Task: inverse folding
């Protein structure tokens, strides 16, 4: 079922012009490749300027595409126990969804201050970044802007309650 997969195709032209090469590939992440209780979320977040904070900075986001009866409670995210097994992040290039911004989105996987850590991922305006992860704690993925507030989208598959991989 297509809704249970993330499919991303990449085509890249690399190296100086006189030795340029083209590479490409497709990543297909099936909903249950890693973990045993995987569910989709979509989160539109906004940075707190250049201050690093959790990329999904609230618990209680309802997982997508749940079928619940009138007396069921939908399952929601819990930052402390949910693990990210697939993520795609888009810098919308806006401060609030409509006002243009040239700021970069900085993302870190170590749960710390992005300015102090090496390995910070930089996503420029209107760019996307994605990764297949082996159960990174949702609370350990942080984001900040290079300047001012910045709006971003997160599409992720979380292992609800943690990874058993």
Result:
């Amino acid at each position: 079922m297509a809704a249970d997969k993330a499919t991303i195709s990449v085509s890249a032209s690399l190296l100086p012009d006189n030795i340029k090469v083209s590479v490409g590939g497709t990543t297909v992440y099936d909903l249950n490749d890693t973990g045993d209780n995987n569910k989709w979320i979509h989160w539109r977040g906004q940075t707190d300027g250049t201050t690093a904070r959790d990329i999904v900075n609230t618990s209680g986001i309802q997982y997508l595409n749940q079928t619940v009866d009138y007396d069921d409670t939908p399952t929601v995210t819990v930052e402390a126990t949910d693990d990210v097994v697939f993520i795609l992040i888009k810098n919308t290039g806006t401060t609030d969804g409509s006002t243009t911004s040239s700021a970069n989105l900085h993302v870190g996987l170590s749960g710390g201050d992005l300015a102090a850590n090496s390995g910070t991922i930089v996503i420029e305006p209107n760019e996307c970044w994605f990764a297949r992860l082996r159960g990174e704690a949702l609370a350990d993925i942080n984001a900040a802007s290079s300047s001012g507030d910045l709006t971003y989208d997160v599409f992720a598959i979380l292992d609800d309650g943690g990874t058993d991989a």
Q: What stands out?
A: The chain has a mean pLDDT of 82. The first strand starts at residue 5 and ends at 14.
